[in-house]
């Protein structure tokens, strides 16, 4: 009976893991396809581009704020000892800037290039750790960094297909990669500060963090996209009023934006479930494989052909990431 109970429990655990993998993959791969569609597609008989990609960040903030509020009401209660909303005021600035830079990069580089660049998060972490704090890394960790840096650099230097280049609004690889790396820098600060908030307020749930971050993110983006353009008619940055008018004229774009935002919110559900049931290392493994599949889907479904050398660069990057995950698993077992 005990053995049967353990077998049943193990089978249920495998089912939950499969459910988490399917949820994360489907939500974020779909979101990636929609992000690429909105940055490259021409809508309507006038074949106009959706030029206000930063609006996606604002819409994502609003939808995730509403979603997290509903989740707190349904599944948990905001503890009196959780972090107050004011604690997210500062960190939400970098959380507003970082993702916006990442989305804007799609004007200048392809979606596979953006995914690869944003997968190299370990490089700035190791550089900052070595230069600022004198952290000593092992030879395998340096090999991981070399594989990722070499893969991203090689991919950036290789010629992009003419079919992919025609889809981009303003092809400019140096600017696109710079925006991605700035995104990583801002994300690094954001993640570290969120961890600090969590350590100071242990009763803070993932939903509380999601609520606080998106509350302030919605306010900051609303100011940038609606109030500033209203006060300054020559505001050169993203204009929320123009984005809303574009969605009214092209309902297909509005629908894509809504589904894009819902995928992000639902994906967070599965990430929270994965971390709570299986730990952050399992979640890292799932999200890393998801990024690789996003590149495959972009190449096959969205028509972004990659050369054999580019695929070699992709394999090089994900070999480095896989080695990093393997090292973490070994440390965990030890």
Automatic annotation (TrEMBL):
Residue intervals passing through the bilayer: 14-34, 54-72, 139-158, 209-232
An annotated Gene Ontology molecular function: UDP-glucose transmembrane transporter activity
Membrane disposition: Multi-pass membrane protein
Alphabetized InterPro entries for the sequence: SCL35B1-4/HUT1 (IPR013657)
Cellular component annotations (GO), alphabetically ordered: endoplasmic reticulum membrane; Golgi membrane
Main location: endoplasmic reticulum
Subcellular location: Endoplasmic reticulum membrane
Keywords of the record: Antiport, Endoplasmic reticulum, Membrane, Transmembrane, Transmembrane helix, Transport
Family that this chain belongs to: Belongs to the nucleotide-sugar transporter family. UDP-galactose:UMP antiporter (TC 2.A.7.11) subfamily.
Protein's UniProt name: UDP-galactose transporter 1
Gene source species: Rhynchospora pubera
């Amino acid at each position: 009976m005990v053995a049967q109970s353990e077998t049943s429990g193990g089978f249920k655990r495998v089912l939950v893991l499969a459910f988490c993998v399917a949820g994360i993959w489907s939500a974020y791969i779909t979101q990636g396809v929609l992000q690429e569609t909105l940055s490259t597609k021409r809508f309507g008989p006038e074949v106009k581009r959706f030029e206000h990609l930063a609006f996606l960040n604002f819409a994502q903030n609003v939808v995730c704020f509403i979603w997290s509020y509903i989740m707190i009401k349904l599944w948990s209660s905001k503890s009196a000892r959780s972090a107050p909303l004011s604690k997210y005021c500062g960190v939400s600035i970098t959380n507003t800037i970082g993702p916006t830079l990442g989305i804007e990069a799609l004007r200048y580089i392809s979606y596979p290039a953006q995914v690869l660049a944003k997968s190299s998060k370990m490089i700035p972490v190791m550089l900052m750790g070595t230069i600022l704090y004198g952290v000593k890394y092992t030879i395998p960790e340096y090999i991981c960094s070399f594989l990722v840096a070499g893969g991203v650099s090689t991919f950036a230097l290789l010629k992009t297909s003419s079919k992919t280049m025609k889809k981009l609004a303003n092809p400019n690889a140096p600017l696109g990669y710079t925006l991605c790396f700035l995104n990583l820098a801002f994300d690094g600060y954001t993640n570290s500060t969120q961890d600090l908030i969590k350590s100071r307020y242990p009763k803070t749930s993932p939903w509380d963090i999601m609520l606080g971050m998106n509350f302030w993110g919605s306010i900051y983006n609303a100011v940038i996209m609606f109030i500033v353009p209203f006060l300054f008619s020559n505001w050169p940055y993203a204009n929320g009023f123009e984005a809303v008018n574009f969605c009214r004229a092209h309902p297909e774009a509005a629908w894509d934006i809504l589904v894009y935002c819902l995928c992000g919110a639902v994906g967070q559900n599965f990430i929270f479930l994965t971390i709570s049931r299986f730990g952050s290392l399992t979640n890292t493994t799932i999200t890393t494989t998801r990024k690789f599949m996003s590149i495959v889907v972009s190449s096959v479904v969205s028509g972004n052909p990659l050369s054999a050398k580019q695929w070699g660069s992709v394999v090089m990057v994900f070999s480095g990431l896989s080695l990093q995950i393997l090292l973490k698993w070994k440390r965990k077992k030890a």
